[in-house]
Design brief:
The protein is α+β, with helices and mostly antiparallel strands. It has one domain. Helices cover 33% and strands 26% of the residues. It is built from three helices and five strands; from the N terminus they run βαβαββαβ. Helix 1 packs across helix 3. The mean pLDDT is 90.
């Protein structure tokens, strides 16, 4: 059985990892026009104030960065 972690906690963990590279994970608002272009989650370079990556899958990014362990999963 896997331990469920909230989306908010996962986002905070990812942002702690990305802060070392001057980057931040942002969330689009559901009614925003930008959600169609960039997806729900996107990464911004805080130094240059530019979008680095878009259409981010939260769980895939967290696993890639080592923000969640194998025994953890994103809960609703």
């Amino acid at each position: 059985m896997k331990v469920k972690i909230s989306k908010r906690a996962i986002i905070q963990r990812i942002n702690r990892k990305l802060a070392k590279q001057d980057q931040k994970l942002n969330t689009s608002r559901m009614k925003s026009a930008g959600i169609h272009d960039m997806g729900r989650y996107y990464i911004v370079d805080t130094y240059r104030n530019a979008v680095v990556d878009s259409q981010i899958n939260l769980e895939t990014m967290a696993r890639k960065l080592g923000a969640i362990a194998e025994y953890e999963e994103i809960g609703e």
